[in-house]
Sequence to fold (689 residues):
Amino acid sequence: MLLAKTLTSSTFKLALIAIGTFGLIASAIFGYVYLSTSAYVRSRSDHAIMTEYQSLRSDYQQSGRDALIEAIRRRMTYRGSGDRVYLLVDPSMTVLAGNLREWPPAVTARSGWAEFRAAGTSPDATSGVLIRAMLETFPSGDRLLVGRDISDLDGFTAQVRAAVMSGLALIFVVAAVVSILITRRTVGRIESINATSQAIMRSGLDKRIPLRGSNDEWDRVAENLNLMLDRIETLMAEVKQVSDNVAHDLRTPLTRMRGRLEKAYLGQRVGDDDRSLIGDTIADLDAVLRIFSSITRIAQIETKARKGAFRTVNLTEIASEVVELYDAAAEQDGTRLVVGGDREVFVTGDRDLIFDAISNLVDNAIKHGRPGGQVSVTSNNGDGGAVVSISDDGAGIPCEQRDQVFKRFYRLEQSRYTPGNGLGLSLVAAVARLHGVRVEMLDNAPGLKVQLWFSSPAD
Amino acid sequence: MTSDRRHILVVEDDPETAGQLVEQLTTSGYQVDLAGTGDEALMRSGAAEYAVITIDRMLPDIDGIAVMRRLRESGVAAPFLIISALGEVDERVRGLRAGGDDYLVKPFSFVELLARLEALGRRSDTVAKETILRVGDLVIDLISRTASRRGKEILLFPREFQLLEYLVRNEGRVVSRAMLLQHVWDLHFDPSTNIIDVYVGRVRRKVDGQQAYPLIHTVRGVGYCLRAPG
Fold:
């Protein structure tokens, strides 16, 4: 089954294409080597034949037929002349000198290059050998043929050809085997990812893709998929948490409303009582509606890129306006609310959203800070970009809960009963994400310091 | 002044909401015409001069924004109050940019609607040019940005003065928290805390503290109203 998957996998198809391309190139290179080798060998032999032929020809022209016969005989006795072929015939085709028994019948041309098979030069030669020769018919009618037995050359090129062919075959076989092995490995890794995916679809999100520890790209793919699964699992848990919290936060005012209406329904109509009952119900209904609009507002901020409404804004100005708005509230709590930092800190963003985020943080700082303490809002042009920090000197948030507080409806145990719906920091997080802002929560010793880092300064 | 100050056109497609609006506005002393579709709105607006036209953003036939554009093109000068379930800031801005004069998000309280209608109706007739405004024994000077009661100066921060000025300009009318946020702070969202109440509370302490009678009154469930007794 794995083999079938290997053969149909896209990696294998890619490997086949690679083998095909590579094979073509290798064949072309080997073909060129073969052709140029054989051509070189042949030209060397042709050159030798030509030199000898010219020397014999000049013997004939300068000293006549007898001198040529003499020269041929002499040459035939040279050592290492076994592969040489000479033949001189008169016009009646009678052999005058040379080591061929007769004028080869296949050669009909009067002059030029010729290739033919002959019985052989030596008496022991049983089979025909391949001979390449230069020939000429002199004006007297005598014919001269000078050549060489090129059977050996032919054998050499045949050997080269065989080597080339077997080399090519080896390349193809090795490439095929290697590509099957590689594909098998790839298919194996993909199969393990597929198996995990199917297991997740069947049972639950708790399965993870096994890593091989090879730190290769497959491990990284598996790692990232696992991280993605972690994230999905967290989100699912959050959704569950949110629905639980929504149920809690909505049920409280809804229960109160239901109780009141029931009382009004069962009781006597009393003008003033009815009025206050209805008034309270409307107030609770408003609280419910406000929760809904906060949720949809966060969802809308999160889902769309509102970059269209972005313009250059001065963080210090926004911070001052927030402080001004919350000044009265701080005064009521006996908290000192101060603003500071650089006069001009420009960032690109949506004024309303940044205002909303900062005011949520200031609101929290006043609510959870020390009564009679101090809340400060400072904006600076830092080295790492523009930053606005909101700090209080209250109880702070325990380290391990700092990530939790950005979750929707999350409320620390200690603040369960202070007013608010637990959506403020989710909104801050949503606004931060939209603006590419990094949110840091630091220990203000005592208290909490929240910093919003705008990475890129306004241009 | 050709338009009838109490004549309003309501463009709303949901029959129940429309019925409630007509009933309550009539009770509040308005003469109300109702249009259930964009076409009807275009037809009716040609027949009468309205003080204010309220338009639902999502109508069955033509988009509310397109209706406003067509009405303006045909020369209707009445201010538009957009009433819509699309509450996100972008939508509000889009509605206002397309020619709406104010924006109200569903669901809304009827008192809030009344407050906005009053403000819009007034905007279409008077633009006060006075620089000194008086309500009872309160005097505010728009040039020197100072306020006093019975000749005694009240120390206010600039934003507090702005708030008081807005209340004074709307003397006798209910002003909602959302309207304050919009006109005093230029914020188009609800900070969903009682921050406005706290702020108004401080202004009220400065303005009404140790005085013969209070001027700033809370309107339960809606907002505030500044008025002299009697």
Observations:
- Chain B has eight helices and twelve strands.
- The mean pLDDT of chain B is 84.
